[in-house]
């Protein structure tokens, strides 16, 4: 992300939050759930839950679009969920778009089709047979003029298509080719979603950024349901190999930044 940051504009997260809040109140799709070794990884659901609750607090109706590997995760917070079937294609996504008529789509750590027309993890291994093609929603949204947002941290997530040429040139990875209107990058995708929530809190002057205690409790709950660390592949309280001490530091700094007005 240090390399890719050079190719992003200033205040990209703030601008994305402002654009979200300019949208008319209505349904907003959030998609997440990255398949790792038979489970959904812990990066993605935490940020999605956080942003969904923030959006709900300011008048939107968040609807989570995911697949079976995140089953039960979002019902814990009484959020609406649509489960996409792994093998189905355009028809199911066209139907769900027509049913809900969302004002925007937001992806947080969700695998998208890459430039080789595959769905692959960070090791370059295909996970196509275990990944619902939620990126089709973003292709359909583009044709319909629905604003799209993406949060990614590695290059293979929906939205990283905005930087695909840079990723190929500078990182020698096979990037996702799915583009979005507004891209947010972060070392961990959850942290990018937390930052969006922090900006919503600052702009709307309403408490929506969760405390570390709340995040830890939710992490424990989804780990109990089977979520694993995407790096270590262990069913433990960590995200992308980072211990909870780092998670606490990130949240504490975001709270401090909002509170002191330096954000």
Give an overview in words.
It comes from Dorea hominis. Residues 12-254 form the D-glutamate cyclase-like C-terminal domain. InterPro entries: GLUCM_C. It holds the Pfam family GLUCM-like_C. This is DUF4392 domain-containing protein. The protein is of the alpha/beta class. It has a single domain, classed as inorganic pyrophosphatase (n-terminal core), CATH 3.90.1640. It is 39% helix and 13% strand. The chain contains nine helices and eight strands. It has a six-stranded parallel β-sheet, sandwiched between helices. Strands 2-3 form a two-stranded antiparallel ribbon. β7 (148-152), α6 (164-171) and β8 (182-185) form a beta-alpha-beta unit. The model has no long low-confidence stretch (mean pLDDT 96).
Secondary-structure blueprint:
Elements lengths: L1 H4 L6 H10 L5 E5 L3 E2 L2 E2 L4 H13 L3 E6 L13 E4 L6 H11 L3 E5 L26 H10 L3 E5 L11 H8 L10 E4 L3 H16 L7 H13 L19 H17 L3
Parallel strand pairs: 1-4, 1-6, 4-5, 6-7, 7-8
Antiparallel strand pairs: 2-3
Gross CATH architecture = Alpha-Beta Complex
Residue-averaged pLDDT: 96
Q: What is the helix/strand order? A: HHEEEHEEHEHEHEHHH
Distance between the termini: 20 Å
Tell me the name of the CATH class.
Alpha Beta
Unreliable runs: none
Let me know the largest β-sheet: 6 strands, parallel
Number of helical segments with 4 or more residues:
9
**What fold name stands as the CATH topology?**
inorganic pyrophosphatase (n-terminal core)
How many domains in all? 1
Helix content: 25-40%
Instruction: Give the oligomeric state of the chains in this entry, treating copies of one chain as homo and distinct chains as hetero.
Output: single chain
Secondary structure: number of strands: 8
Radius of gyration: 17 Å
The side-by-side strand order for the widest beta sheet comes to 5-4-1-6-7-8
Class per helix and strand makeup: alpha/beta
CATH-level-4 superfamily name = TON_0340
Q: Which term fits the overall shape?
A: globular
**Amount of beta strand:** 5-15%
């Amino acid at each position: 992300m240090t390399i890719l940051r050079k190719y992003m504009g200033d205040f990209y997260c703030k601008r994305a939050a402002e654009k979200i809040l300019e949208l008319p109140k209505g349904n907003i799709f959030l998609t997440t759930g990255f398949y790792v070794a038979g489970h959904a990884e812990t990066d993605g659901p935490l940020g999605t839950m956080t942003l969904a609750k923030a959006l709900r607090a300011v008048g939107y109706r968040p609807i989570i679009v995911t697949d079976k590997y995140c089953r039960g995760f979002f019902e814990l917070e009484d959020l609406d969920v649509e489960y996409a079937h792994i093998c189905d294609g355009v028809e199911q996504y066209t139907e769900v778009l027509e049913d809900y008529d969302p004002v925007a789509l937001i992806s947080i750590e969700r695998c998208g089709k890459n430039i080789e027309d595959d769905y692959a993890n960070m090791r370059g291994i295909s996970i196509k047979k275990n990944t619902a093609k939620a990126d089709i929603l973003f292709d359909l949204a583009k044709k319909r003029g629905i604003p799209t947002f993406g949060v990614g941290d590695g290059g293979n997530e929906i939205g990283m298509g905005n930087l695909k040429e840079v990723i190929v040139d500078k990182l020698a990875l096979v990037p996702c080719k799915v583009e979005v209107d507004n891209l947010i990058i972060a070392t961990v995708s959850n942290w990018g979603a937390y930052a969006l929530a922090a900006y919503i809190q600052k702009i709307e002057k309403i408490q929506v950024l969760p405390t570390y205690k709340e995040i830890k409790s939710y992490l424990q709950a989804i780990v109990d349901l089977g979520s694993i660390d995407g790096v270590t592949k262990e069913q433990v309280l960590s995200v992308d190999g980072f211990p909870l001490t780092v998670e606490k530091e990130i949240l504490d700094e975001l709270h401090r930044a909002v509170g002191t007005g330096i954000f």
